[in-house]
Amino acid sequence: MIIGTRGSNLAFTQSEYVKSSLSKITKEEINLKIIKTKGDKILSSQLYNMDSKGLFTKELDKALLEEEIDLAVHSLKDVPVELDDDLEIVAIPKRESPNDVFVSNYNWDELEDDATIGTSSLRREAFCRHHKKNIKLKSLRGNINTRIEKVANNEITGTVMAEAGLKRLRLTKYIKNRFSIKDMTPAAGQGALAIVSRKDSIKKECIAKLNDPITFQETLAEKTSLKELGIGCQWPLGSFAKGYKDKIELFTILLNKKGEILKEISLKGSLKESEAIGREAGKIISEYI
């Protein structure tokens, strides 16, 4: 069995986790194959200024379709809401923290007006402006270690990052503050992994054993709200769902680039209604775009 992965430390660590998990349920030899994506090669532009669809996944999709690999491991938030007709998300393991965190030598509440925050996310930019109207925002691309290094070298005052990545790489010592879900609502699927394979793959049954049913329904609601809107990362949108036994609650918020809240909603229902709830959230939010 061959697992396709991007080459960053985080992507490789995530794929090693999937490899280890699969090794416990199969006697097959499992290998990793590194595939470089367009998103890894272009570091000079903000993500939202680029055609972001499949930016970190398209090359892995191609390798799957050409049967060079048996499965691909992605950060779910990077996976387009519409996959190739011959591919599917076979499993979403239990989610790590969905929260965003602040990496800096200063506490978030102590920041002065001339503080410079680095990020490549329009959503994070908008939330930063919402909370700190006068801070400076600077384009920041690169892997987690590169971004931490820029903070350590005082090139920027701080940066906002996903807590899940820092946890997986055991770099939580760099976290200064942790944002609540309401203060900085995460991107749809943040903290979760997506394992993608061909629909006709004989490995599907084995891979599917890694799926966490509640995480799958939570992220289904989040990604469906995004799909209904069809806006990708071109609008500052946060979407987070939490499942409790057979219930689910979805919180979705839309801001403008200035950091002003345009609409926020919270919908509840049964876990099996996750997709319908996500669709309803998307329809409501779409009236404000």
**Can you tell me the CATH superfamily of the largest domain?**
Periplasmic binding protein-like II
Q: Which regions are unreliable across 5 or more consecutive residues at pLDDT < 50?
A: none
What is the C-alpha radius of gyration, as a whole number of Å? 19 Å
CATH class of the largest domain: Alpha Beta
Per CATH, which architecture of the largest domain?
Answer: 3-Layer(aba) Sandwich
Number of helices: 9
Strand segment tally: 13
- Determine the fraction of residues in helical runs and give it as a percent range: 25-40%
Shape: globular
The secondary-structure class comes to alpha/beta
Give the strand content. Answer: 25-35%
Biggest sheet, spatial arrangement of strands: 2-1-3-10-4
Q: How many separate domains make up the residues?
A: 3
Order of helices and strands: EHEHHEEEEHEHEHEEHHEEEH
> What kind of sheet is the major sheet?
5 strands, mixed
Distance between the termini: 44 Å
Describe this protein's structure:
This protein has 289 residues and is an alpha/beta fold. The protein is built from 9 helices and 13 strands. The strands form 3 sheets. A 5-stranded mixed β-sheet has the order 2-1-3-10-4. It has a 5-stranded mixed β-sheet with strand order 7-6-8-5-9, sandwiched between helices. The chain has a 3-stranded antiparallel β-sheet with strand order 11-12-13. The longest helix has 17 residues, at 213-229. It is globular and about 55 Å long. The model has no long low-confidence stretch (mean pLDDT 91).
